[in-house]
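re the bet — no i am not wrong, look at it urself. input seq straight from the record:
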Amino acid sequence: GERNGAPPPARSSPQEGERRQLTVLFCDIVGFTELANRVDPEILQTIIRIYEDTCAVCITRFEGYVFQRLGDGIVAFFGYPLAHEGESERAIHAGLAIIESLAGLDVPEAGRLQVRVGIASGLVGVASTEKGAVGETMNLAARLQGIAQPGSVVVCEQVRRLAGGSFDYEPLGDQALKGIARPTPAF
């Protein structure tokens, strides 16, 4: 739609849910398709369960909320349903904890699972009824995860700014990300 500075008319229906300022963490397994083609479906279920449980433990430890599980993809929110201090910082801690925890596990027929994590902060429209969420922040987190090297966390400028100096960042420069209007600095 057009942006002329005027906010859209305020209205709320159960389907639309609410717009919330939060931090989104996207995580997926590196080489999942190859793994899925290689192992027995029952073993794959076991691998996914180990992976999901590990992610959930790390996310919960830092007061995040596992919002969706999409195959090998996990979407977690920090700041929903409850807001806490330092959401971006906690999301990065959770991402690093997931990578570290999985590196220490020897998963049956998969060995060591490697993941990629992308984290973005901003407004997200959350419809709690059907577990749906929309907005550029969701897309941005997914795209950042897509450019992450195996075993690394990639964050946007806002997350880096909000998380402060608790971490060492390596600038990845401006990234042209699909579905994101302007080049996006990533770290």
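see?? Helices lie at 32-38, 41-61, 87-103, 136-147, 157-163. told u. also Residues 41-61 form the longest helix (21 residues). so pay up
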